[in-house]
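Figure 2 data, in text form.
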Amino acid sequence: METDPTRALEWMIGLPDVRFLGVEDGPRGEALVHVETKASVGGCPTCGVVARVKDRAMVELVDLPMFGRPARLVWHKRRWVCPDAGCQKGSWTEEDPRIAPRRQVLTARAAKWATLQVGRYARSVNEVAGELGCDWHTVNDTVVAYGETLLDADADRIGEVNALGLDEVLMVRVGTYHRQHFTTQLVDVHRGQLLDVVPGRSSVEPMAWLAERGPAFRARIEFGTLDLSGPYRKVFEVMTPKATLVADPFHVCRLANTKLDEGRRRVQNETLGHRGRKADPLYRCRRLLTRAKERLDDKGREKLTGLLRAGDPRGDVATMWEAKEAVRELYAHADPALALDWVTQLGNDLQDADYPPEARSLGRTLIRWRKEIAAWHAARVSNECASQCASL
């Protein structure tokens, strides 16, 4: 049985070829574990002359927690120097990727653990940083570096895709004015697998991603699902011209709800001269308007009818509510031919001059996307899984 306490501590540290030097309390209560490598004198990598130790630099690395509190590994790095005055190498510092990679603040084992926690177990970077007792950026930079390496090494991660979805996601708001930064998610909608995330919501990055996959990958794509986005339609038309484009039902229904809300707010300002207040009829019925018609009980229908009668004198909001329900009814059957006739007729009807401007705008969009909207009834593929992947 091992009785040497120093050897026991080296075993507890668990790093290869590391000698334990001591431990102390840090200024914030963290444990500072001092170590050095068991490196022997070697030759200069340039000329081969036996090197000597010039000095030592203490490098503090974030390590895994020790006994319930944050820990730091203080690595006493040797700085070697070549004694040959004519050698161009000069001096260099020892490196050991088993302890920590170059330019990383976390030890190798802490970096792998943090990447596993964020990538596999979906823990937030902030939570992992709190457990390690370090800054958010420290953990995030490490997870990105290790995660990109893992993705590049996983050549079979993407596999064969015959239904590709493109969906925009608001990732972050930056700066004083909270400027929005969007990304585009590329999803295998049949398997519900997030394939990749590219910056922006234009056609440039998704087209570059598809170009990188190669012609064989693009030729296998039979369906392309998307929201009502012109740049995303361009991606499929240029890169996968034989694919059937499918407008995602969620985004179609959301568009109808958006136009309904725009009409409600316009009528609110025209009739009362101000934004909605809690006592205003149209403000009180805003949630009832977005609820599905079949989910309204007798009390709810009676309340909605009364509020519209009080706050919608020309019936514009009621018209938009009926238009929204007509769009929803489009997905109540499974006949592709009927769906195309339905959306075409509905789009034309909504452009009647007597209808409110929001209805006419909705009608124009339905006509412009009628083939993609009706294609869902034949393909039955949706970007709904993309939203689920985004929340992971």
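Caption note: The chain has 16 helices and ten strands.
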